[in-house]
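Hey, I was hoping to borrow your eyes for a little while. I've been puzzling over a protein and I'd love to understand its fold better. The fold is given in discrete form, as structure tokens running alongside the sequence. I'd be grateful if you could look everything over and explain what you see. No rush at all, and the record is pasted right below.
>
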Amino acid sequence: MFYQVGLSQIFNHKIVYNDEDFQRCRNFSPKVGTQYGHFTEKNFPKEDFEAHGVVFKAPIIGIDQFDNIACEGQIISIPPQKVSKIYSVGFCEIGRFTENIACLNDKKIVSNSKVFFYQFGILGNTIRTYDIQSNNCKIALTDKKTVEDAWLYYYESLEIKTNSEIDALVLPDNPFLHIMALTLKLFD
């Protein structure tokens, strides 16, 4: 059984743009959508989406609406339940990072799991990052800009090492790490 975590109330960053947003941002900063890149609304799922056999809740995309979390140590409350895995979809704004997501029970850490995401750009078939350091980190979504250029969201599967119920998750304190969706695998 799976539980899709609702994140829209704590989204604090925007990376998916429609044409109007895109043009407004281009007027402010000519590099938007080029060197720094942003995902386009037409290439982003409008409904829940599947990545590597796991279904995720798609953020609602709209003008002046945040669609992801820039991780700053946010605490996400969930109904108390036993969790075996955390599945996430996200990316790194710059570089690559490995950080911990803490699992809490009654405000005490019962498990820490490392999440690893890469920078969101590729050039041709070459990922613009360094050596892959996590077998669990895979491409979840792509937004193809040109034949040679695309932007990526990554999927990560994290093992939870506790038999305790979990009632909250604590995200890393690293605003370069962005999370779009979380799904939990529950013990049967």
About this structure: The first helix runs from residue 19 to 28. Confidence is low (pLDDT under 50) at residues 29-37, 128-132. The CA atoms of residues 142 and 152 lie 5 Å apart.
